[in-house]
Amino acid sequence: EVEGRKYRTKPIALKVAPPNTAGKPVTTKDGQTLGWAEIVPAKTTAYVGESVPVEIRVYFDERIARSQVERRPEIVGEGFTRQEVSDPSKENGRKDGRNFEVHVLRTAITPSRAGTITLGPTDITAVISVQRQQRRTRSPFDFFADDFFSDIFDQATHRMQLQAGAVDLQVKPLPTEGRPQNFTGAVGQFEFSAEGKPSNVKIGDAVTM
Questions:
Q1: Got the DSSP string for 22-66?
Q2: pLDDT tens digits for 128-138?
Q3: How far from chain centre, in Å, is Cα 31?
Q4: Gap between the Cα atoms of 55 and 102, Å rounded
Q5: Using CA atoms, how far apart are residues 178 and 185, in angstroms rounded to an integer?
Q6: Is the pLDDT of residue 186 over 80?
């Protein structure tokens, strides 16, 4: 109500899906895993206010010629704040006897309440290119063929949808015993520094801190 006049918002619909804690790997028709992802926190138990490093790890079959995470994903959930996700770095990994190229994106979350909080699930879009041997003409969009890596011609680019499954984090309340009187809630080790540029200015000039 504003100055005696009533205003009403229009309703919106929100579709709520059940959580997928297992993640969704991308496979061929014969069960070969082409890519999958996971959320890996540095620890599974933390205190309220403690910063916890978290990695989003995206795995690609080593036979894929080129792979790239299309955009930086976010870790969704309630009961925590999050830092911006970094650009991916690449490393080699091995799972179930197979080699993968692993794209690692890093961030950190800070729990704001005690109890169980859930990180994710997180949806990830990747673009991949596969080098193929020319044996017979075939649609480059026949992506999930049984002979995927050996029987389709040329090199084709595809968009791959992945999902990293949800991970639970147990958050404990901060202990009260031995707590300093001036404690304000920050947990961890911190370093602070300040710098102003430029160092020589005239009256009225702006200084960037």
A1: S-B-EE-TT--EEEEEEEEES-SEEETTB-EEEEEEEEEETT-SE
A2: 887 654 444 45
A3: 25
A4: 11
A5: 14
A6: no
